[in-house]
Amino acid sequence: xxxxxxxxxxxxxxxxxxxxxxxxxxxxxxxxxxxxxxxxxxxxxxxxxxxxxxxxxxxxxxxxxxxxxxxxxxxxxxxxxxxxxxxxxxxxxxxxxxxxxxxxxxxxxxxxxxxxxxxxxxxxxxxxxxxxxxxxxxxxxxxxxxxxxxxxxxxxxxxxxxxxxxxxxxxxxxxxxxxxxxxxxxxxxxxxxxxxxxxxxxxxxxxxxxxxxxxxxxxxxxxxxxxxxxxxxxxxxxxxxxxxxxxxxxxxxxxxxxxxxxxxxxxxxxxxxxxxxxxxxxxxxxxxxxxxxxxxxxxxxxxxxxxxxxxxxxxxxxxxxxxxxxxxxxxxxxxxxxxxxxxxxxxxxxxxxxxxxxxxxxxxxxxxxxxxxxxxxxxxxxxxxxxxxxxxxxxxxxxxxxxxxxxxxxxxxxxxxxxxxxxxxxxxxxxxxxxxxxxxxxxxxxxxxxxxxxxxxxxxxxxxxxxxxxxxxxxxxxxxxxxxxxxxxxxxxxxxxxxxxxxxxxxxxxxxxxxxxxxxxxxxxxxxxxxxxxxxxxxxxxxxxxxxxxxxxxxxxxxxxxxxxxx
Length: 567
Known about the structure:
- By secondary structure, the chain is α+β, with helices and mostly antiparallel strands.
């Protein structure tokens, strides 16, 4: 027997909303206090109870585990061919292509697609889809943007004994990797277990170095080869020059012999634009500039002694602590010295003394950085002591055309912006990064950012000028992304900067000419005084006569007698 129950209800009553109403309070249970039960309880003070919805966990339980990312390649094989066609056989693939191209279906498809493509091309030529209708308004909005910067990545020295990040070099292709030179520049640093390795970092995996560059002496500087990206050049603390091929791992390919290398640390090593892409040159505090070819590192191809007396004596040479080379002037290079001088050298000169073209003096201490402007080759920047200065090669025997204020802390490095002609960066020993824009502010930086508690030691911007790397004395490299207003070239900015530099150069030249005129006038006056031989007796008699004439005139005035008028 089937048991069933039919429940009938109107459809309008299904899903009917609830109706709530306000009712007065109603006492359900009333338990009066019983004083006799008070002896069974213990009073609690305070009566605060912490209630947390989530579980209370320790720090090591909350933090997630660090994810190790590895890069692995994938081999792509050409596909899409029929089974009877071997893609590795060029004759078979060519024959198959010719058969397909003669097929009527293929021809009809190409004609149909070409008509559609032709229509799109004509439409694209008729209408500029990238046209900016309100470019001026957008430019005004960009000018009002407040300069800022944010940290996007931090690279730390993986060793327990921390060293200084002395130099940075970006990979020439898309700047996805950065080579960092780690070295302790402290005199006679004898800390135990100090590593000599430097590293190449991948920005997508900042927790582990992409490649470890191993060698027997720490490197002070590293540079990627702009012509062959796999070659990395290094200048060592013991004066040797080394290079690596990143395709073959972190072991050095070749190294210069100690007896023919520099005698002091190599503070600058730069690739030269040669046909083979294998030439480079280096500078050191031993007072020498050496040219090398990595195909033959057994001896230098050329040598220059930085003797500003032009006697070519190594004992009189100035120690080089910074080096700069620009592709816009392939025969010239700049050297910053420990003594505060900047030497402008010309490699094409016939004799070594003639290679030292000009010497610029203006810094009190060592010139830690010197950089030629990427927009105006005759203008260069120098950083030393407490200030940064801008110089012009056209004005030789004078001071800089522009300079920053004197800071309370030392300036350790500086560089130009690769995209804006009037913007440059300076690093200070108190961990502050200054961004200067001389078109808007000459007395104060446009942006000052405290990057680290340690001293900043090295700077290197990317080619797009948006990201800049800052190395510290503790081996930490901080990558900063600056705002678009400091890395976007505005309209007429290059011409305005050129006008400003020309005006300052002209002003400095006028002051220089006036100073020369004053010097010549002082020399003529000194010479004239020497020629005039005064007789002391004659001078005495003249002064005596004037004295008594004054006394006689005073006596007559008191007696009321008329004064004698000299006829």
